[in-house]
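Reader question, answered in our methods column.
A reader sent in the components of a multi-part assembly and asked whether the whole thing could be modeled at once rather than chain by chain. We filled in our standard form and ran it. Here is what they sent:
COMPLEX SIZE: three components
ENTRIES:
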Amino acid sequence: MDLIAAIFVTPFASMWDNPQFVIEVIIGGLLAGVMYSLVALGFVLIYKASGVFNFAQGTMVLFAALTFVGLLERGVPLILAFVIAGAVMVLIGIAIERLMLRPLVNQEQIILFMATIGLAFFLDGFGQLVWGGDVHPLDIGIPKKPLIIGGVLINQFDLVAAAVAGTLVAGLALFFQRTAIGRALRAVADDHQAAQSVGIPLRFIWVIVWSVAGIVGLVAGIMWGSNLGVQFSISLVALKALPVLMLGGFTSVPGAIVGGLIVGVGEKVAEVFWGPALGGAIEDWFAYVLALAFLLIRPQGLFGERIIERV
Amino acid sequence: MLYREVGQFKASYAADEAIFPIRQDRVLIAAALAFAYLVIPAIASDYWLLTIMVPFLVYALAALGLNLLTGYAGQVSLGTGGFMAVGAFATYKLATAFPGLNIVPILLLAGIITAFVGVLFGFPSLRIKGFYLAVATLAAQFFLIWLFNKFPWFYNYSASGVISAPPRALFGNVYVTGAEADPRARYLFVLTVVALLALAAKNLVRGRIGRAWMAIRDMDIAAEIIGVRPLQTKLLAFAISSFYCGIAGAMWAFIYTSAVEASAFEVDRSFQILFMIIIGGLGSILGSFLGAAFIVLLPTFLDLGPRFFGSELPVNVLTNLEAMIFGALIVLFLIIEPRGLARLWQIGKEKLRLWPFPH
Amino acid sequence: MTVADAAAAPILEVSRIGMSFGGIQALSGVSLSIAPREILAIIGPNGAGKTSLLNVINGFYHPQQGEIRWKGEIRRRPQPYEAARRGIARTFQNVALFRGMTTLDNIMSGRLMRMRRNFLWQAIRIGPAEREELEHRAFVERIIDFLEIQAIRKVPVGQLAYGLQKRVELGRALAMEPELLLLDEPMAGMNVEEKEDMCRFILDVNEEFGTAIALIEHDMGVVMDISGRVAVLDYGRKIADGSPAEVRADPAVIAAYLGLER
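And here is the structure of the entire assembly that came back:
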């Protein structure tokens, strides 16, 4: 009886009583969602262009952040550290293309997926070997004081994160739609063989995509690291990006954003209002169940491409 | 020339349909079973039995279960750990609720309970396919582990949160679980369970159910036009696979670690078992065993390596190095032989047909 | 050519079928019937809606208008596996075989509808499951003999030549013991000898098992030789339906194929 009330009545009652609090939670969730979207963006890029589901995206985020923080700690100035870390990610992109993608070029998706899991293990160990396993606090000057706008408490940091994500997305969207390389990327995502047969240099495209994904990962890593400190658990964030992708569809940049927002809000609201009734830590699984429910209605995600099977 | 089928004529369909039609295969299997049952208990140390053989067999069983679902029926699942946890906790609750009940019916019941849970989480597979399904199974994985951590009913409200598996005898005073259990008894029990279930799996996949699963895997649209019912076939795959994983989880908790804890069945366990079937070979019973052996033995070799060269690396460096080598090996393996060790084994047999001639 | 039981009630009747995808009208107002034991050829220019029509009969597509009657009963929104269980078998333009399986297993999969033993018997195998398996194996071996593909029994179908794959696919359809066989361009990509073999198989199936056959075919020689009746589709509409000689002389058909001004 208590449980039923706790699920169906109490949360709505407390929402009704504190509308401002609800708005705060929602905004907090939106902004948290933006962070998920940043990571999901990297996934989508790679999937769109190489058809590979890159399980190592989270590890790439961590590795990029570790490199950045490591350089800062050794006294390298901010901008230079960013550039060097970015260059490192490009190098990693080149290495991945040469050593992993090229030999596996015609294999099925599941094989490539497993290869990215192997890559994740490798980068994990490598990153921690080079930079150590401790938590590295990261502060690049993003203001953290909360603001009060219209009676609602908002975190400045989250706003900056939202702005960064927005810029990235706008830039990427323009890139895909307007430039020649963007068009080539979309062709490659559709059909590798056809793209090659019209002269698109597959390998070069892949290097570009993985490097861009690496740099997106660097940005995401810096944002997450400023928030939480750069540590191992960041790579676990990648697992959270999966329900974002499920919701938004694996092939859609706007889908990654919208999916991230929905997951962010859903999680926060569920944890705050329903969590106590169910013992807490709902965030462990809520995002997945939410995504699963969405998928049952729309199996390709909100913005994903409809898979039409022809015989 | 060792592996020729020359002279082995099949005079009936029954002979052609035998489980091991080639005589050399029959000999090999008989030898392997004899070795496992007679030689190993005699010569292996307790350490080897308990830390290598028992976990190998338990892993192999879980890998077998996952292979039926993912390798034969084509439904990618990342929820293996969760299903193993269901088996472990079901066994715990049954064992403590019915102190007089023998371990064998307990295991069977636990497997059946896990099968039901598997079917429940298998329903989405009708609408959702491929990677989306894999991610959906993660929902099962995370939810189940959260469930077992959050609700004290599952661990009988134990204050310490660490529960150990109660002792159970197979018959008489031959204990297979609990502190008194003899390592040999444990090993032989697990060996028998796994051998029987492997035989059942082999029979399933070479009969009509295996064919229906492979049809769904290869082209589920075409499967429908020959009259296969997709929902029933997929749910049966989830059920049987979960049954196997549940029993594997139960044996993991009760016979291998003697502790029932949800943390043993987290998402990295699911990935580990997926690795095993990819490396061992999707869609191969033998492959499940080979993959399990590979992954169980790999850390042992990685540990021995540096020691062999006379250096002792600090632990954290060693762990990171292990992770790097493991990751690199996975990628290397997938490049060299994506169809896994089972395929390499087959190629080896093909070569044996001709040896000592090159072609 | 066997004489179709023209007087008997048709086993399949489609009436005024209308089917559109988005903006494209694939079929409009198509009515057709197939008598038992009949060989009907469906011809028409590319894009005329021939495969769509087969997909509708099969249950893959659900038409927005019209109805389908199977042996007199109306079927609403049938699923493909229901069509299969009612006795309709199908082959495809692009050969929908199970690439991971051997020829034998592929054709055996055509018997899956009729194999009943539950999974417990299957797990034990010895006993009823084994007997059932052998019984069906014997049936499938007769089909293999009939189609002369004994030598490739254990070859994974992905490795077979295209012509052989088409034969295996026919074998799988025959294993279902269908009353109506839908063949989508069964002779595409074959040379003269292979076509003659395939024609012979089709005629034998029709004579020996009494199976009604509807086939989509582009080779006019084949159509004229083996079919008892021909239906012509163009732009989603049926423009002719009659004996091969009648259809050949029909001015509308000639206009459609040769593109004369309307």
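What stands out: The longest strand of chain B covers residues 168-171. Chain B touches chain A at residues 76, 124, 127-132, 135-136, 138-139, 142-143, 145-146, 149-151, 221-222, 267, 271, 274-275, 278, 316-317, 319-324, 326-331, 334-335, 338 (CB under 8 Å).
Send us your own complexes using the same form.
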